[in-house]
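Running this now, will post back.
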Amino acid sequence: MLRYFISVFFLLGFIAGHSQSKSIDLQPKDTVVKKESYGLRVGADLSKLALSFFNDDYTGLELVGDYRLTQKLFLAAELGNEDRTKQEDLYNFTSSGSYIKAGVDYNTYQNWYGMDNTIFLGGRYAVSTFSQTLNDYSVFDSNRYWNADGFADGQSPGREFSGLNASWLELVFGTKVELFANIYLGASVRLDFLVTQKQSDEFPTLWIPGFNKVTDGSNFGASYNYSISYFIPLYKKAKKATKKEVEK
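Update: finished.
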């Protein structure tokens, strides 16, 4: 009996010593793999739809979309059509045409787990093809006796100048916030730089669809959009751990 108790004692001592040789992890790592959705997000610019409804001199539609390439990088594009009638000092004209913008967005915002919002910087290369119609104009009258304002009414020719085009670069800053499941509200501001333009020798280009007003002596312009879009998830990928998460 004594030999039995001695054997059990040594066995328990061996097990205790072996268990103490293993280090105890007081901060066990989370082994759950966190995954993020990748896919296509498509929608429309709300500002152009609203302006078309409230302004009789404007009709426009812009479709927006982006495709997630990596955790931070998105392919992005906008496709639109605009028809705008404007009254300048000497001219009343209508500019009408289509445009396409393509580029990338980089998300600078670090989401909490389960969130999928973006605050992004991006760039676009844009091309527009359009026409301008001169609806009415005034000519300078050197004989102010007949016209105290200095201008006489011109004809209303309704002449169209077609085959016009332009290209420009855009610097984009914006955000997209998930309102409901897969439904996003977005906003962006854009600084534009006109690269090329083909215009008529008889009538200058005053407004470009997608670019907005052309300023004399400057290639810079500005634009904005407010969008609502729907995300179509295609697949999921494991989320890459940040430096802080790795250090933990």
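Residues 16 and 161 are 93 Å apart (CA to CA). More later if anyone needs it.
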